[in-house]
Amino acid sequence: MTSRERLLAAIRGEPVDRVPVAPFGLGRVAPDSDIGRELIAKTDPFLTIGAGADPFLGSGVPITTTTEGGTTTTVIHTPKGDLVRRHRRTAVTTAQVEFPLKCPADAEKLLSLPYSPPAINLEPYRQWRERIGEEGLVMGDVGDAVCLPATWFSPEDFCLAWADAPDVLRALCAVASQRLLGYVGRLLAEGVDAFRIVGGEYASVQLGPRGFRELVTPFDTELVALMHRHGAIVHYHNHGHMGDCLDLLADLGMDALDPLEAPPWGDTDLRAAMARIGDRVCLVGNLDDMEVVDRLPTEQVLAIARERLEAAGDRHFVLGGTSSGTYTERGARNFIAMAEMVRRNA
Q1: How many Å apart are CA 251 and CA 253, to the nearest integer?
Q2: Domains and CATH numbers, the chain
Q3: How many C-beta atoms surround the C-beta of residue 71 within 10 A?
Q4: Of 8, 3, 82, nearest to 41 (Cα)?
Q5: Backbone phi, then psi, for 292, in 5-degree steps?
Q6: Are 56 and 148 in contact (CB under 8 A)?
């Protein structure tokens, strides 16, 4: 099998010549380097590419941006008043230090903006499809509806809004969902045939099962159904402790789910997860990119990988990392070593 065939078969629960070993992205490895080419050739990578657009805010929004020192201030001018966002950059990192929605009433300002669908740019997606060919699976990357309130409020204010004004969050998610469905419909019409959905973890980690059922389930179920009606593969990304929401996640109807962090970083016991939902969803991951694949000696990584393979079996499973996208050459070599081990034992 080619890598693409192997990944698609595993995702569909069909027989494979060997369990795919799939780094999520190429980490910090240059694709044109020797190790980058070897990683692509010997493993079964997933790649996610966006379409360069904001489906929630749309286009033509009046925005003023200024930078002073290491702080960039963005002012969104709405008919009901300005919203302000600030990012601060240091020598080490960058972070959002002020969020545009400070209280539930600010949602009225955001929703007062006229909406025009954004332009999409699928050229990077098409270039990677052509470049990877049969050596991996390229997916369009989209955030789900809960991403709108969860990223426009600070994490603290998002949680407080759920406690104090849940109807505001429901309204924001409903608007975001309608805009997202239109956006994804355009991507499907342009030929995108596999997607990764991100964002559910904002609810599962911060709000718990009830928040997930109300702010994620109705909207993501519809999103997954739209993708499936067009024959697209749907992969779902959800970090964090998943035990309380594992069945809720599977009920969304996606084809594959990651990253399923094992203890101590998460709570997923792979054998138990396979027993709960492995007949419905392809499980992807269960190895930590940063703490296992990129740090431990190869023999130790291989020993953990063998445990995962024994726990999962050879159907509906892809051995992978936790989608951090930060692994280095050391991690790449460990991914290659795992793929070679699986190939020898196939």
Answers
A1: 5
A2: 3-59+116-345 (3.20.20.210), 60-100 (no CATH)
A3: 13
A4: 3
A5: -115, -70
A6: yes
| Residue 292 Cα distances to 24, 177, 221, 263, 301, angstroms | 15, 36, 33, 12, 7
Q: For the purposes of burial, counting CB atoms within 10 Å of the CB of 320, is it exposed (0-12), middle (13-18) or buried (19 or more)?
A: buried
Of 103, 148, 136, 192, which Cα lies nearest the Cα of 4?
Answer: 136
pLDDT digits (tens, 9 = 90+) for 265-316: 999 999 999 999 999 999 999 999 999 999 999 999 999 999 999 999 989 9
In tens, the pLDDT along 174-189 reads 999 999 999 999 999 9
- Where helices occur in the chain by DSSP H, the ranges are 3-12, 34-42, 106-111, 123-132, 147-152, 155-164, 166-189, 201-206, 208-215, 217-229, 246-251, 270-277, 298-312, 329-345
Q: How many CB atoms lie within 10 A of CB 339?
A: 24
CA-based nearest residue to 184, from 215, 218, 139: 139
Residue 24: beta bridge partners? 46
- Are 140 and 196 spatial neighbours (Cβ–Cβ below 8 Å)? yes
Q: Are the C-beta atoms of residues 226 and 181 closer than 8 Å to each other?
A: yes
